[in-house]
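User: Hey, quick favor. My workstation is busy. Could you predict this chain's structure for me?
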Amino acid sequence: MVDVPAGTYPLGRADGPSDQRPVHHVTMGAFRMDRTEVTNAAFAEYLNALGLKVNGSFEIGDIGRRNGPREVVSLLSEGWEGSGRYPIIALDDDQARIVLGDGRFAAAPGYADHPVAEATWAGARAYCLWRGADLPTEAQWEAAARGTDNRQYPWGDNAPDSSKLFVSGRSGVTGPVGVHPAGASQFGALDMAGSMAEWTLSLKRSYPYTHLDGREDPFRAGERVTRGGDYLYDRTPEKQTVSHRDGFSNAPGRGHRHIGFRCASR
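Assistant: No problem, here it is.
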């Protein structure tokens, strides 16, 4: 993790889209944030730690389409009728890069250090809580990306290029985390533009931001804010800025090929 000091940080833009206005300031205590997005290997470790009753060996594409162990199907597959379980990751989607073999989960070959995709908002938060952390609020996320010098992008004010972020524009074509040091934020966080959009704790509500209006309540229903332009849909420089908060999709109960996450701790 990287350290983000206590202070007063700007949020939003005076000249940005309506959901980013007005520009205002938020005071927060010190916190820590993951240097990179959570990887497939790390999330597979979490799935194994859950102690699910897993029998046999089959491809993830088979989950939800066969009479496999209900514990796996109900937790890992979207749209399982009558399960009563909230999915944590949609491993039945062909964009997921975690496989199951010999009763254990593992990153698909060649994807261990790529950011995990298809985790639902609840699944992302469950992983962070398992680590003794939580999802960052969107104010924390922007502070970690923007720094104390009010930069436009995590790395500064220069326009995005391939040395600073990963953008492919092709579905499922992700890249490894942490390989663009030129794109680091002031505090050393990487991949805060490009790669995956990232879940935050915050409900999607208008500015000005205040944590007192219930937007940080994890038990309230509603879309959650994603931050950081992603590799697939948000390829324009405008959507790679630190203030961008209008992701392609924010549905918390589904996995998404373009949304990952990182954790924060106080």
